[in-house]
Amino acid sequence: GKENVDSWHNRGRGGETTRFHTVNVAQPVRFSRKCPTGWHHYEGTASCYRVYLNGENYWDAVQTCQRVNGSLATFTADQELRFILAQEWDLEEKAFVRKDQRRFWVGYQYVITNRNHSLEGHWEVAYKGSSEVFLPPDPIFGSAMAEKENVLCAQLQCFHFPTLRHHGLHSWYAENCYEKSSFLCKRSQTCVDIKDNIVDEGYYFTPKGNDPCLSCTCHNGEPEMCVAALCERPQGCQQYRKDPKECCKFTCLDP
């Protein structure tokens, strides 16, 4: 309180030695994660993205994304696509993933309207309700295309080499939807607690960061109305270590 500080300060001016001893003063907290482990966060869309390596056909990939409260990724603008292309997705080498290039199912479908001399058609968003405004350019047609298929599914190809990746080099493929491929899921940013659990809207939680004594409310994927607890140092212990994930839990390091 200001009154106490002033009285201590005045006494110090009178010649007495003034000592201040503070324990665990609360510091401003930066929340380090808005996505679960394995997901990449993009501030521009307040979204999380993850590549799944297990090769699945388009329809199975759709269901996998839905199980994690997401959908196959669609893009709102070039900036979002550039963010995706610039990421290092830590892909392992699999039978369906070439080392120098990567292709992912994404949330578009190519509807064929004319098969006479050349394939003609247009891109559509796979799921109604998507808010994207970005549609891909004309695709490269995949080699596994069935003759009677009138709907093909979108694969985004990006490249492993950093120089190609950072220049945003990529291609769009219209492929047989039953081919197996890696795929890219997208979901809204969320509250993630200090133990990497996903927190529902309106619930209290301790966010990821450096303060296990923080309690916040989850609102639109952001921690709000946070309250911090301050801990007394452990009694009878000169050297100690604070537990990074448990509030006011210490390990004494004295011999």
From TrEMBL:
GO CC term (a single one): membrane
One Pfam family this sequence matches: Lectin_C
SMART domains listed in its UniProt record: CLECT (SM00034), VWC (SM00214)
Membrane-spanning residues: none
Domain of life: Eukaryota
Domain annotation C-type lectin: ranges: 44-186
InterPro entries: C-type_lectin-like, C-type_lectin-like/link_sf, CTDL_fold, IDD, VWF_dom
PANTHER family in UniProt: INTEGRAL MEMBRANE PROTEIN DGCR2/IDD, INTEGRAL MEMBRANE PROTEIN DGCR2_IDD
UniProt-recorded name of the protein: IDD protein
Organism of origin: Erpornis zantholeuca
The organism's taxonomic lineage, starting at the top: Eukaryota, Metazoa, Chordata, Craniata, Vertebrata
Gene designation per UniProt: Dgcr2
